Amino acid sequence: MTVSAFQFKYKALYKPNQLIYGQGQTVIVTGWTVKSTVQKHLLPEEYAVIGQLYSPTRGLNLLIRNLLLNPHVRYLVILNATKEDKNAGACECLLDFFRNGFEKGVSDTGRQCWVVKSSYSGYIDIEVDAIALQNLRQSVEYREAKSIAEAVSSVKSYAQQGAMEPWGSPLEFDLSGVESAILPGERYGHRIEGKTIAETWVKIIHLIKTTGTLRPTAYDGQWQELIDLMAIVTSEPENFYFPEPNYLPIDRSFLQEYVSQILDDAPQHEGVKYTYGQRLRSHFGRDQIQLCIDKLVKDINSARVVMSLWDVGNDANDSPPCLNHIWVRVVDSELSLTATFRSNDMFSAWCANAMGLRALQMHIRDKINKSAAYNLKLGPLVTVSQSAHIYDDCFENAEKVIKTYYPKICQQRDYSDPSGSFTIVVQNEEIVVEHMTPGSGEVVNCYSGKSAKQILTWIAADCPALQVEHAMYLGRELQKAELALSSTGELIYEQDRPLKKFVTIN
Ligand SMILES: O=c1ccn([C@H]2C[C@H](O)[C@@H](COP(=O)(O)O)O2)c(=O)[nH]1
C-alpha cells in the first residue's frame, strides 16, 4: 500500500490551532524553529502534524497527550537545531522520554506526576496511564534532526516506508485545571517597584494573579492579564541577583546566552524569527546601540535617545518582536533605561527580558563613561509591559511562587514613602498635621482641624500617590488624635503610641 492511498486524520485535543495538519504518520516537532519553514519542503501526505515545542514543563505533557490520541502516528522527527532549543531543553527532554523513559515523582509545584528521566525537568500528568506511555515509547520510532534539511530528509524517508497500522486505540485521559479566585482592581495602568529583578518579579506575579483579568489567548488557552504594567527595578546589582534557592525561571548559564541575544548582532538563520541584537545592531542598516551612546556622549541631557525594534514595513506578519521600544535617559548622573513590550509573558520571559535589558543598560553606561568625561551611575530599569500576562499552564507554578516568597518580600519592605512623611500633634484644641519631604524633612504643607475625616480628605486630595499602608497608618493615627481631642483632656495623643489616660498627681 502506498502512503498516498492511506490517509490519516490527526485530532488534537490540546493546542489544535497551533498545528499544521497533514495526512501522514510522522509528527514533526520543530522546537523553536518556525514550523512553516519545515512545512514548505514537504507534502501534506508526508506528515501527520507539524508543531513547535518551546518548554519541557509546559509543552511536553500536552504533546504526549495528543500523541496518545493519535496512534496512527508511528514516527517522530524532533528538530533540535537552534540556540533557543539548547537553552529551553524541550526537544532534549522529549528525546529523553523516548530514550530513557520516566518515573514517578513530583513536579516543581509538588504535584505527583511522571517525571521524564532527563537532566531537564519534564512532567506528564499522573492521570495518564503508565502502560499507555510505555506503549507509546515502544511503538513510535523517533529521530533527532540538527537542521531543517536533516528533518525534511528523515520525514521523506519515513514516508517512503508505506503505511503502517495504528499501534493501538486512541486514548484520552482526564486533565485537571487550576481554579483561581480573582480580586477586583484597576484595569489599565499599574505600577510595581522592587529593588531587584527577583523581588519585582514576585510582586508582578502576585499582582497579575490576584487582579489580572482572565481572557482567551491567541494560542488555544487562557491567560490572566493586566494592561500597561510598569515595573521599576531600582537597584539590581551589576553581577545580577539570583536568590538561593533560585526560584526564578532562569539561571546564570541561561542568562549568559540570553544577554548576547540582546547585545550582539546575529546572522539571519532560516526558521529563526529574529533576535533583539539583530534588530538593534543591523536590521535597519545601522547600529542603534552605538548611535545611542554617541548621542548621549554629545548631548547628555537629550530626551531623544530611542531605539526602535518594530519594523513598520514587515512586522504585520507572523511573529513580530515583543520588545518594541527602548529609551535611555540621564538625570542626576544616573542612566536609566525604559523598555516597552507590546506583549510580555511575565512568568516565563520577563526575568530574562529584564536581565538582558539591564545588561544593555550597563553596556551603554560603561561605553559612555569610557569615551567621555562622565562618571554615570546605573539608574533604574523600567519595563512597560502592555499586555502583561501569565499563561494558564503556569498558574500552578505562579501560585507556588506567591505562596512561598510573597510574604517574605512583604516583610522586608521598608516604610519610606516617596510622597513624604507626616507628623501629627493635638494642640490648641486642634489636630495639627505637617507634611514633610522624605529626605531633608522640609515642611511642605500643614493641615489643622477637629475632624480626622476632614484632614484625611485634604491629604488624599493633595497626595494621590501615597502608599497604601502609609494611608492606612494615617487613618489610624488621625482617628486616635480625634478621640483624644473629643475626650476633653482625659486622653493624651502621642504619635505612634497608644492613647494614654491623663493622670493628675495630688
Ligand atoms: O522577549 C519576549 C518574547 C516573547 N514574549 C512572549 C509574549 C507573548 O506571550 C509571546 C508572543 O506572542 P505574540 O504576542 O507574538 O502572539 O511571547 C515575551 O514575553 N518576551
TrEMBL record:
Occurrences of domain Thymidylate synthase/dCMP hydroxymethylase (ranges) = 270-403
Give an example GO biological process.
dTMP biosynthetic process
Q: Does the keyword Transferase apply?
A: yes
User: Cross-referenced CDD domains, in alphabetical order?
Assistant: TS_Pyrimidine_HMase (cd00351)
A single cellular component GO annotation: cytosol
What's a single GO MF annotation on this record? thymidylate synthase activity
* Coiled-coil ranges per UniProt: none
Q: Which UniProt keywords apply?
A: Methyltransferase, Transferase
DUF4346 domain sequence ranges: 417-496
Protein name, per record: DUF4346 domain-containing protein
Q: Supply the source organism for this entry.
A: Tolypothrix bouteillei VB521301
